[in-house]
């Protein structure tokens, strides 16, 4: 019997006008070290070796639009980042270069844009099993 090949998610990759600048933002936000640094490619990840984030320079990058519209570049993915306190985490993210989105669909989640314009969410986990 033939066994299935092993698959391991190693990273999610975000395009940006400047990979190093966006990597620096997430490195400061998450406290993750750089795993690999090349001219147009940077990888960061948790010290425990889990899946990380990669950043790729894309000269034709167009920031996604959120909330989506038919005429704009639609968001294809976003990052959900758990924090222990929402308000101080939002303040820290903004101090590092993020921008708070005008539209906030939930009281217990904050949608922000990273310096390249990718939406990401900060949230506090509540209740057992959520």
TrEMBL record:
Q: List each copy of the VOC domain by range.
A: 8-129
Signal peptide range equals none
Q: Where is this region: Disordered?
A: 45-72
The record, for InterPro entries, names:
Glyas_Bleomycin-R_OHBP_Dase, Glyoxalase_6, VOC_core
Pfam families tied to this protein? Glyoxalase_6
Q: What is this protein called?
A: VOC family protein
Species of origin reads: Streptomyces tendae
Q: What is the lineage of its organism?
A: Bacteria, Bacillati, Actinomycetota, Actinomycetes, Kitasatosporales
């Amino acid at each position: 019997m033939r066994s299935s090949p092993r698959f391991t998610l190693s990273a999610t990759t975000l395009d940006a006008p400047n990979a190093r600048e966006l990597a620096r933002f997430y490195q400061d936000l998450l406290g993750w070290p750089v795993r690999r640094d090349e001219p147009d490619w940077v990888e960061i990840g948790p010290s425990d070796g889990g899946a990380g984030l990669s950043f790729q320079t894309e000269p034709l990058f167009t920031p996604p639009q959120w909330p989506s519209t038919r005429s704009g570049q639609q968001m294809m993915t976003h990052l959900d980042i758990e924090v222990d306190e929402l308000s101080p985490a939002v303040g820290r993210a903004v101090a590092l270069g993020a921008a708070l989105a005008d539209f906030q669909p939930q009281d217990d989640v904050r949608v922000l844009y990273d310096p390249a314009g990718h939406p990401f969410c900060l949230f506090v986990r509540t209740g057992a099993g959520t």
